[in-house]
Amino acid sequence: MNPVVHFEIPAEDKNRMADFYTKAFGWKMQMLGPDMNDYVLVTTTEPDDDGRPKNPGAINGGFYKKSADMPAQYPSVVIAVGDREMAKFASDDPGSVWLRPLQPRAPLNYVSSWPITR
To answer: How far apart are alpha carbons 40 and 52 in whole angstroms?
Structure first.
């Protein structure tokens, strides 16, 4: 089975988003700098020594800066797929449209984006 391992939420104002989710839910934020496109790592549950959530079924995530040149900026989930061909098969399903091409990225192996149409 290929698990959901991360969520991402677009943000127009990362400081306002971080403040809201910290106050509302007690989430912890780690603001990354311009070299990481001002990404914000979000901890929603305590991680173990390897950085994985201690609580089964819980995930952590991040906020990314909205960009005018990137389509379909909505909250999303990241599914860990260790097999490149399986990821390609899923995204080549009729009706799927690539938003971001399949790219190698450790430690998840491959990352791409396409909208959920079903």
So the answer is: 17
Amino acid at 81: V
Q: Model's pTM, two decimal places?
A: 0.73
| Spatial distance between the Cα atoms of 72 and 3, rounded to a whole number of angstroms | 23
What are the tens digits of pLDDT across the range 7-46?
889 998 999 999 999 999 999 999 998 888 889 999 999 9
- Residue 13 CA to residue 22 CA, distance in Å, equals 14
Q: State the burial class of residue 37 (Cβ atoms within 10 Å of its Cβ: 0-12, 13-18, 19+).
A: exposed
What lies within 8 Å, CB to CB, of 98 at 6+ separation is 91, 112, 113, 114
